[in-house]
Write a structure and sequence with these properties.
This protein is mainly alpha-helical. 36% of the residues lie in helices and 7% in strands. It has helices at 10-29, 50-57, 94-104, 126-129, 151-165, 181-198, 213-217; strands spanning 69-72, 83-86, 108-111, 135-138. The strands form 2 sheets. It has a two-stranded parallel sheet. The chain has a two-stranded parallel ribbon with strand order 2-3. Helix 1 crosses helix 6 (181-198) and helix 3 (94-104) crosses helix 6 (181-198). The longest helix has 20 residues, at 10-29.
């Protein structure tokens, strides 16, 4: 219609949606996990996390016995990287498990380069994090990755270009120039972490000093 602006959202969050669906497909094809696994696609994040808040207030399974949350948001489209930039690093021991899996890919974890932006408190995972569920936010806007082609400088250019030109804009459309090889490795890490937890009796914890740990500790008895 005349006067309407179309923002395709191919990356934010078409790629994250595709990643969740692919991870779900991998779970269906593999052995049935010992634990229940919930796959969710939220809406209205920019309106105050309304979709994830709705789930968190009326979850399919109690959050007190929800092992972990892995959230996939914007993914970088600039190719393979030597690392993954992790938002909110230092909060819980999910990141230690992720670091081990990343090392198997020959990669490392790098902290968010601009924590003052508070990205850890602005994405859908926060709705369950503040209720005590250990979470990971995989989001390509936490800082430039150390790209195999071009290094950290190239990663920073990708973040700057996407943020300035395409984030929440009409430019956020699929392009033949995308190189999704790095995004695929990030998605694989999310899948492997979820798979390992789903086939275990492990209970990841918030690290000492995390503001979310006291909430989780209150429900420790029901997870035995």
């Amino acid at each position: 219609a005349q006067g309407r602006t179309i923002r395709p959202g191919a990356n934010d969050d078409g790629l994250g949606t595709a990643a969740v669906l692919e991870i779900a497909r991998q779970f269906v094809q593999g052995p049935r996990p010992d634990r229940s696994v919930v796959f969710a696609l939220w809406t209205a994040e920019e309106r105050g996390l309304l979709g994830s808040e709705t789930y968190a207030s009326r979850p399919t399974y109690p959050l007190e016995t929800t092992v972990a949350n892995i959230t996939l948001d914007v993914l970088q489209t600039a190719g393979k990287a030597k690392d993954m930039v992790l938002i909110g690093m230092g909060q819980n021991d999910l990141e230690d498990r992720l670091a081990t899996l990343a090392a198997a890919q020959g990669r490392a974890l790098t902290p968010d380069s601009a924590p003052e932006r508070g990205l850890f408190y602005r994405a859908d995972h926060f709705s369950v994090a503040k209720r005590g569920v250990p979470t990971l936010l995989i989001m390509g806007l936490g800082g430039g990755a150390d790209l195999v082609e071009g290094g950290r400088a190239a990663g920073e250019r990708w973040v700057a270009d996407y943020t300035a030109n395409c984030y929440h804009k009409t430019c956020d459309a699929w392009s033949a120039d995308w190189d999704l090889s790095g995004a695929v490795e990030d998605i694989d890490l999310a899948y492997r972490l979820g798979r390992d937890l789903a086939h275990s009796r492990d209970w990841p914890q918030w690290k000492a000093g995390s503001e979310f740990r006291p909430v989780r500790d209150k429900s420790a008895g029901v997870r035995k």
